[in-house]
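Re: weekly structure request thread

Next one in the queue (319 aa):
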Amino acid sequence: MSNFRKLAMVAGVAAIVAGGASAQERKFVNIGTAGIGGGYYLTGGFICNVLNKSRKDLGHNIRCTVESTGGSVANLRSSRAGEMDVAIAQSDWQYHSSKGTSKFEEDGPDDNLRFLFSLHLDTARLGARADANLTEFSELGGKTVNIGNAGSGTEATMTFALSRYDQTPEDFFGQATRLTSREQAQALCDGKIDAFFYTTGITASSITEATNTCDANVLNWSDDTTAAMVDEFPYYANVTIPAGSYRGQDEDVSTWGLAERLVVFGPVRHTVLCLRKLIPPRRIEFERHHSIPQSNQRTSYASETICATRSSLRVIASI
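Done, posted below.
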């Protein structure tokens, strides 16, 4: 089993319950995700569904709901403002938020941020109209490309990646749009954009909508610059999108990606219920939400399952 598949199958689902509350007191947990058309929203729904169905067996009274948000960076900023307890975030922006680097340099380190567990691989995906005759990232110069809604991890990741080429979105693309994940597939099929960039699980509806509704293809993004990124930063890895993942995709696509993680915010004033026996029996069900792409590069993602007592968080297992 690949390291990324192990990440996806880590044994545990966490929910946040107010410290000191009894099991019978009702607690509402809202998981921050991203756009409705992406994999984060599906993952949040899966976690909530499993958690809500476990009330009787595990003796808790948690009510879990999913919130559509602007994505990773917006989620992490909401945490700093005390507006969110639990969220899904890209591993690169979780790292930067915890260290107070990159987009969070002015904010400083977030000492209240806690990593619970990794979920699956967010693949850096470029979808393009077939009539644009594009096959790889380097051909996008001067094109109209959607880079993710403002405040999303997708937008921030594209901006960072372009900086490795000494470019900005405004310099490299003819026009950089910032549509939501729900809008970009239709915009592509309507000819309003030439391509879009999206970091998400392979089965995200925004990608499949584009390939199923109009003639669209997925581009390669693998070169010396991305190889250097993978070598330098532990949260990146080379990824292969297998042939047949989308309609009309006859060959493997080479790109890169990073882990999607569930994180909890605020001082450790909560009890985290480790539902370790919930996810493993539902592995196949989880994989219906996300096809886990293989990694052809070593990974050094932390893959701990974190549990907590009423007073502290501690690592209880490593995959």
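The longest strand covers residues 114-129. Residues 39-53 form the longest helix (15 residues).
Next request, please.
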